[in-house]
Amino acid sequence: MKTAFTDLDELLAFLELDKNRLNLPIGNSDPFSLRVPRGFVALMKPGDPNDPLLLQVLPSGREAIAQPGFNNNPVGDLESQSVPGILHKYHGRALILASGACAVHCRYCFRRHYPYHGGTASPRQWQDILGYLKADPSIREVILSGGDPLMLQDERLAEWFANLAGIPHLQRLRLHTRLPVVLPERITPHLIELLSGLALPTVVVLHVNHPNELSPALTSATRKMHRNNITLLNQAVLLKDVNDSRETLTTLSEKLFAAGILPYYLHLLDRVQGSAHFEVPEPEARKLYRALLAKLPGYLVPKLVKEITGQTSKTPLGIS
Ligand SMILES: *Cc1c(COP(=O)(O)O)cnc(C)c1O
Ligand code: SF4
Questions:
Q1: What's the topology of domain 78-316?
Q2: Ligand 1, residues 93, 204, 205, 267: which to mutate, most atoms within 8 A of Cβ?
Q3: Quick one: how far is CA 184 from the chain centroid?
Q4: At what angle do helices 246-258 and 282-293 cross, to 10 degrees?
Q5: DSSP state of 74
Q6: Which of 34, 89, 240, 309 could tie 76 with a disulfide, CB 3.0–4.6 Å?
Q7: In the chain, where are the structural domains located?
Q8: Ligand 1: distance of its center to the CA of 68 in Å?
Q9: Cα distance between residue 257 and residue 219, in whole Å
């Protein structure tokens, strides 16, 4: 984390890119600043301004252009906090914002404007969150999310797990994390032991968007998790110029499977202010989805979904 690139000039120098040939933001006022670990940068091609991994993290001048329909709260998260730190939108599962921080700052992120007030839930908030979960027996699954829950130290995670294990109606635990993708070293033997030793079955949903992200280090870490009975799924976001081609998405699914991970969701972009240049139009997305169905076994085709505020689940998109 300490050696991650946070300085744009340093990153560009490292990648041998000419600042003057890029469309960079003017000024330095964006609180959602550049952050990308070195291991992830090592997977990028030097000298290529269109590298699909670089495009996900490089601030762009296009972020400042307002676009109709794009705003700071695209999926209604601000309205669905039952108590601070919990999002309970869907039946049976509650999502905990376990950490406000991430190891990487993804430019398309729907939480980029989210007012986390930094840091992680305070112990008092923990008590309120646990009280809320205990009081609602319809909640069968808790999702630790964020930010990124793997930003927490193992001891903190262990505390969460111990507290959650004491809630009798919980049947599953889930973690939503992109951290292993940018920092596979985080998957230590101790973390694997922690996750595979839990009383509740555990699902880890990773966030890999492009096959180049599945490095040997990541693949070796996920295979270990897979062998230790941790169910691994992947959600990707469909991103213009990053993964919006049949070949890229087919290869992604195949490499995920080889790494012990099943494709779960392919999300349409949430329309967050500053991300319009990543949007793939819906008809185009449906066309890609059809192309995947024609090429891959059913279990390697992620569900194409979009999030519509007020719906009772993510909304699947058909092929028509
Ligand atoms: C996406 C999401 C979930 C998880 O939905 P699944 O369809 O079960 O993966 C849960 N809670 C919130 C608030 C979400 O946004
Ligand atoms: S929440 Fe996920 S998508 Fe958003 S910046 Fe953090 S790692 Fe990236």
A1: TIM Barrel (3.20.20)
A2: 93
A3: 15
A4: 50
A5: T
A6: 309
A7: 8-64, 78-316
A8: 26
A9: 10
Q: What is the pTM of this model?
A: 0.96
Walk along the chain (320 residues) and give the pLDDT tens digit of each residue: 999 999 999 999 999 999 999 999 887 667 688 999 999 999 999 999 999 999 999 999 999 899 999 988 887 777 778 798 999 999 999 999 999 999 999 999 966 665 554 456 677 899 999 999 999 999 999 999 989 999 999 999 999 999 999 999 999 999 999 999 999 999 999 999 999 999 999 999 999 999 999 999 999 999 999 999 999 999 999 999 999 999 999 999 999 999 999 999 999 999 999 999 999 999 999 999 999 999 999 999 999 999 999 999 999 998 77
Task: Give the span between the Cα atoms of 98 and 191, in whole angstroms.
Answer: 16
Residue nearest to atom 2 of ligand 2 (CA): 178
